[in-house]
Design goal:
InterPro entries: DUF2306_membrane. Helices cover 83% and strands 0% of the residues. It is mainly alpha-helical and 142 residues long.
């Protein structure tokens, strides 16, 4: 929802209500996700993987909210790129699971443990690359 709305605005400021609602949803989802991580089916590796995802999802949303209140729109965009990458971890998880289960013929346990980390870590690395690449482009332009 937020990705489509902000893509349509192309560089325009997002409506404050949209951002506040999105970050409220992130806060609620990350808190619920953290508690769900503590009872995930495959033990400590998945507790840690999904728990860290929930904490980072909450923190990146909180940081985006904090910097936008101080008027730093560039930093807000950077934190929201990170936050969107973590939001999309649920989609990434659903992409990896069938590949690992059916194409690679991994056991459910091995797949679930791997996916608990693989659903967010590559997304976050790509987001960080995008943020740093934009910083580098901004330095070469100025």
């Amino acid at each position: 929802m937020a990705v489509l709305r902000n893509a349509a605005r192309t560089r325009a400021q997002p409506a404050p209500l949209d951002g506040s609602l999105f970050l409220l949803e992130v806060a609620l989802g990350s808190i619920a996700g953290f508690f769900m991580a503590t009872v995930s089916a495959q033990g400590l590796p998945t507790h840690l993987g999904f728990g860290l995802l929930a904490v980072l999802w909450f923190f990146t949303g909180l940081e985006a909210s904090r910097v936008v209140r101080s008027g730093n729109i560039v930093a807000r965009r950077q934190w929201m790129i990170r936050n969107f990458s973590l939001t999309l971890a649920a989609v990434t998880l659903r992409d990896y699971m069938p590949v690992m289960l059916f194409a690679l013929r991994w056991s459910f346990r091995k797949t679930y443990i791997t996916v608990s980390w693989l659903c967010s870590v590559p997304n976050l690395l790509i987001a960080e690359w995008l943020v740093r690449r934009r910083r580098g482009l901004a330095k070469t332009v100025s």
